[in-house]
Design a protein that fits this description.
heterodimer; A: 114 residues; mainly beta; 6-stranded mixed β-sheet; 0% helix; B: 113 residues; 4-stranded antiparallel β-sheet
Chain lengths: 114, 113
């Protein structure tokens, strides 16, 4: 598969444990935030998003937390499975006159140990 | 099946030889965009399009062109490729723009020698 990052921070997690992936964003004017999952050799896949007026949003086995005070975003994966091994990207969206603009973080690699 | 299709998946070319990477989506999305992905830099937006005949520059547009003559297609054109354009390229589409529910293509690995 394609290497998406030679120097990515890596989170090693035991299968069945919970994973927490962190992300710092830069723009306080961003109106929503998104988490993507990218498996080897594939394009990013939308996981979950959260609007800037929310603190928490839950999906299936995933929870995103937003702390606007410190511009911090986290993705929690419950009961991590081998299929969760991937690179995870956060992105912030800012709406401007020319439309939406997405800015991605550098990514975090998650390795699930059996 | 909803999908974004890019072609080719892999391409090796020489400096200066014009090339086009095609992107097509079957979801009737208005918003399409191109990104490049480089180690340690995440995805950076090259160009985006909010609708037919409406395109605008992203963060790294230099050396690239795009066109949006019809809603489903958004080709990326490199008029005179250079080695610093060696990268992994992704096309994406979404209904409302931005990142929510964006669909990405499988990627095009371009090497310019």
């Amino acid at each position: 598969g394609e290497s998406v990052g030679l120097h990515l921070p890596t989170l090693s997690v035991q299968e069945g444990d919970n994973s927490i992936i962190n992300c710092a964003y830069s723009n306080s004017a961003s109106d929503y935030f998104i988490w993507y999952k990218q498996e080897s050799g594939k394009g990013p896949q939308f996981i979950i998003d959260i609007r800037s007026n929310m603190d928490k949003r839950q999906g299936q086995r995933v929870t995103v937390l937003l702390n606007k005070t410190v511009k911090h975003l986290s993705l929690q994966i419950a009961a991590t499975q081998p299929g969760d091994s991937a690179v995870y990207f956060c992105a912030e969206n800012m709406r401007g006159a020319a439309g939406n603009k997405l800015t991605f973080g550098g990514g975090t690699r998650v390795l699930v140990k059996p | 099946e909803a999908q974004v299709t890019q072609n080719p998946r892999y391409l090796i070319t020489v400096t200066g030889k014009k090339l086009t990477v095609t992107c097509s989506q079957n979801m009737n999305h208005e918003y399409m965009s191109w990104y490049r992905q480089d180690p340690g830099l995440g995805l950076r937006q090259i160009y985006y399009s909010m609708n037919v005949e409406v395109t605008d520059k992203g963060d790294v547009p230099e050396g690239y062109k795009v066109s949006r003559k019809e809603k489903r297609n958004f080709p990326l054109i490199l008029e005179s490729p250079s080695p610093n354009q060696t990268s992994l390229y992704f096309c994406a589409s979404s209904l409302y723009g931005g990142g929510t529910e964006a669909f990405f293509g499988q990627g095009t690995r371009l090497t310019v020698v």
